[in-house]
Specification:
The complex is a heterodimer of chains A (255) and B (228). Chain A is an all-alpha fold and 255 residues long. Chain A is built from 9 helices and no strands. The longest helix of chain A has 33 residues. Classes of the chains: A mainly alpha (255), B mainly alpha (228).
């Protein structure tokens, strides 16, 4: 078994190495997100046929559903990073968890807004106290609470640890959001796309959706890495590697 | 009880917290006063029709009790952190989770018990039918300790931060949604003459879980927030 993988992961835990790695990956992830997003939007808005019942209004799912997936996916990433940060006190894990929260909150907000825009013509109301809508709103509040707690501490690492704890407490809500449509049979429809078994969706509608899902993942990586770089620069301000970057000197490479 | 043993330390801490609260009796009255004032605002705001008030009475009382507890939670650990006794509790040989549980118990006795006592009065001000009163009291007896335990974990997290008032509300309110749903659900069922045991049992299950987990989580959160 090659041991360069654990070695590489171990090195990635060092802020300057992660800073450079994130800087190298970020433009590619952002470019890929734009490209895949454009392809998915073309596929979803132009190529895919109109729905027999909803007409063209259904096309908002190409934004709504990937955002909803991301709102849960990011919470999962954040919870894993928060756990790693709390247990092994790895600084990068703490920063990744904390900088995921605003991105996750943005995706949750997009999910709620697009769902509300779709709900007006389809359900006849902007908002209803449906189980999934309510639990998604609660998810937004949890994200905002995490962001607020992180920024309320003088000491960033202390704030990160406290907020990481809140991430783990709030993780209870994620399965509730995911299974709400199965547990409570309310207005929001059940999931049509299944990992196991056949999906209840036409292939010409499915591929733009999955492409958009990849695009949002790439966007998350790009946005997260940009935020992590900014956070690392801010919190490591006094360190030599930051000074070297600020002064434009290559510096001695710790990697 | 031998001095220095864990039961003796817990008893001493409980007695100390209750004595401190008793010396400042005005503070105990504040949440009750707050609940009474907010309750009297409702008939002014939505109109005094008894049928309308009776329909919303249960939910309104639960939300008011929740907000009153939220207001009182802010100074659960503040005094101890400011005068340094929290550090001593953390350094004590007894498990911090148990000591914290005693502090939460003392807080529940001083802040929530008075609220439970006045809640039937508030509910009858809002024309809640008398046959639903026992369910209201049972639901409050189960849900207020649950809220205190959940709240204590979050208060512990904000212990080291600069501002915490609104932040505490932002963090606590999403977590207590299920408590409100089950408590108000039991009351609504009782008002309509339906069986109300199931939501009460859910509350009891949640309380049993929180009794075990919340003090441990609270102790861990205090250690994080105080950075020891």
């Amino acid at each position: 078994m090659a041991n360069w993988v654990p070695l590489w992961l171990h090195r990635l835990g060092s802020p300057p190495v992660f800073y450079r790695f994130a800087g190298a990956v970020r433009p590619w992830a952002f470019g890929l997100a734009l490209l895949l997003g454009a392809v998915a939007l073309y596929g979803g808005l132009v190529v895919a046929p109109a729905d027999y019942q909803q007409g063209d209004a259904y096309r908002i799912i190409f934004i709504h559903v990937p955002s909803a997936w991301m709102s849960l996916f990011i919470y999962g990433v954040m919870a894993v990073a928060a756990f790693i940060g709390l247990v092994w006190r790895i600084k990068i894990a703490e920063v990744v968890a904390m900088e995921s929260a605003p991105v996750g909150a943005a995706f949750t907000l997009i999910t709620l807004v697009t769902g509300s825009l779709w709900g007006k013509p389809m359900w006849g109301t902007w908002w209803t106290w449906d189980a999934r809508l309510t639990s998604e709103l609660v998810l937004l509040f949890i994200y905002l609470g995490i962001v607020g707690l992180y920024h309320s501490f003088e000491d960033r690492r202390q704030g990160a640890r406290a907020a990481a704890f809140l991430v783990l407490v709030g993780a209870v809500n994620v399965p509730i959001v995911h299974f709400s449509v199965n547990w409570w049979n309310t207005l929001h429809q059940g999931s049509t796309i299944r990992l196991l078994g056949p999906s209840h969706i036409e292939a010409s509608m499915l591929w733009p959706l999955l492409t958009m899902m990849l695009a949002t993942k790439c966007y998350y990586i790009a946005s997260l890495f940009a935020r992590v770089r900014a956070d690392l620069i801010a919190s490591e301000g006094g360190k030599a590697w930051v000074r070297d970057i600020a002064l434009g000197q290559p510096g001695n490479d710790p990697a | 009880m031998t001095p220095g043993s864990t039961p003796a330390a817990c008893a001493a801490l409980l007695r100390r917290d209750l004595t401190l609260a008793w010396r400042r009796r005005g503070d105990i009255a504040m949440p009750v006063l707050y609940a009474v004032i907010v309750t009297t605002l409702f008939p002014f705001a939505i109109g005094p029709e008894p049928a309308l008030l009776a329909r919303i009475a249960g939910g309104v009382v639960f939300v008011i009790v929740l907000l009153a507890i939220l207001l009182s939670l802010d100074h659960l650990f503040r005094g101890d952190i400011e005068d340094g006794s929290m550090e001593l509790l953390m350094l004590a040989p007894q498990p911090l989770a148990l000591l914290v549980a005693m502090k939460i118990l003392a807080h529940w006795i001083t802040s929530s018990l008075p609220l439970i006592v006045v809640a039937p009065v508030l509910a009858s001000m809002l024309k809640l039918p008398p046959e639903a009163m026992p369910v209201l009291v049972i639901a409050l007896l189960l849900s207020t300790p649950l809220l205190c335990l959940l709240g204590a974990v979050l208060v512990a997290l904000t212990a080291g931060s600069r501002r915490s008032g609104m932040l505490l509300a932002l963090m606590l309110l999403p977590l207590c949604v299920p408590v409100v749903i089950f408590a108000a659900g039991a009351l609504a069922a009782a008002q309509e003459g339906l069986p109300w045991v199931a939501p009460i049992a859910w509350l009891g299950a949640g309380l049993a879980m929180a009794l075990v987990l919340a003090p441990l989580a609270c102790a861990a959160a205090l250690r994080i927030a105080m950075d020891t």
